[in-house]
Amino acid sequence: MSEVYANRRSRLRDHVNAAGTAAALVTRPANVRYLAGAAPQGSVLLLGRSEDLLVCVGPPDDRPYEGRPDESVRLHVLPANGGDTAVAAAGLALAQGADSLAIEEHHLTVSRHRALASVAPGLRLTDLGGAVEQLRVVKDEEEISCLRIGAEIADQALGELLESILVGRTERHLALELERRLVDHGADGPAFATSVATGPHAGRRGHRPTDRRVEEGDFLSVCLGATYRGYRCEIGRTFVIGTSPADWQIELYDLVFAAQRAGREFLAPGAACRDVDRAARQVLDSAGYAEALPPLTGHGVGLEIEEDPQLAPSAMGKLDACVPVTVEPGVHLPGRGGVRIDDTLVVRPEADGGPELLTITTKELLAL
Questions:
Q1: What residues have CB less than 8 Å from 214, skipping those under 6 apart?
Q2: 285, pLDDT greater than 80
Q3: Which of 182, 189, 222, 190 is nearest to 205 (CA)?
Q4: CA angle 242-152-185, nearest 5°?
Q5: What is the largest CA-CA distance in the chain?
């Protein structure tokens, strides 16, 4: 893996040097981990003129799921009460002879930016922008393997929950149980706060579980994800509790399923991100649900649960091969509930079989 991290840093260095900047300071934790193999709490990465430094407030924890720093990056541990790692890194860049430093302005606070400018007035500060995030969009096979294992863990946790008795249990209790099962099956932890929504809450994107109890005839929508070696996947499914679905539930479910299938089938290298969104959205728009739709159909996943690209009406750019994304259309009807269906897939060319589905729990409308 050391060669992989070195190659990533080399690509970023080429970008930085082409912009006329001597060094770069990476502060966003996911970006630090992507380039250095680990991102201990409070650490920053300096791509310096003479060497790369991982500046930490203490020795990294020796826990596999935290990642391990790349051996070719030298650790620089600050002394006790040694201050801000970013400010210290700026001083180290100056000591290496840098006259300019690219920083992640979108991640730094105003006060931290001012501190950098004051501690190293001889450094010209420039904006690195989203350069690292753009490097992260296309995943290598090792990264995809981590996502695949995370998806298997999430599928397993969800499958076990569906075999248990659900009526009478609260949304909050079910969410906690799912998160425990994720860890039991080898996840670092949940990829995000698990959402369990029942009855009138079902289908609501980002619903926070409440003490509402599951009742017969409810829609139950679940959205969860596992983190494995830092990589985060996502799955969402909707079921009916305890009885045969009502006609309106079948109709709504079939419609969202058709929209999700339309979006999935549009995933291909070269496809415009907004066109994937449009393919799914048109199915629901044409049925009169335009007002009930979420702002986007999907998004990239990786070291963070919401990465580029965005699959949304205003999204720019096109998909590349080996980009993992979610396709997650849904409809929520206030007071009645709704449906969400959410998969994580990897964009693949048609010659390789088309999009690779990572989350494989059935999408049949089950009565539990």
A1: 166, 167, 168, 169, 170, 171, 174, 198, 220, 241
A2: yes
A3: 222
A4: 85
A5: 72
**pLDDT tens sequence across 22-40:** 999 999 999 999 999 999 9
Cα dihedral angle (344, 346, 351, 352), rounded to 10 degrees? Answer: -90
Burial of 10 (0-12, 13-18, 19+ CB in 10 A): exposed
Band the pLDDT of 64: cuts 50, 70, 90: low
Q: Tokens for 53?
A: 């430094």
Q: At residue 243, what are phi and psi to the nearest 5 degrees? A: -155, 170
pLDDT tens profile 179-235: 999 999 999 999 999 999 999 999 999 999 999 999 999 999 999 999 999 999 999
Please confirm whether the linkage preceding 349 is cis (ω < 30° from 0).
no
Q: Are 212 and 171 in contact (CB under 8 A)?
A: yes
- Which of 59, 76, 77 has the alpha carbon at shortest distance from 68? 59
Secondary structure (H, E, C), 179-208 = HHHHHHCCCCEECCCCEEEEHHHCCCCCCC
Nearby residues of 32 by Cβ (< 8 Å), 6 or more positions away:
26, 38, 39, 43, 44, 45, 54
Which of 240, 260, 262, 264 lies closest to 338, judged by CA?
240
The larger pLDDT score, comparing residue 60 to residue 183, is at 183
Number of neighbouring beta carbons within 10 Å of residue 251: 11
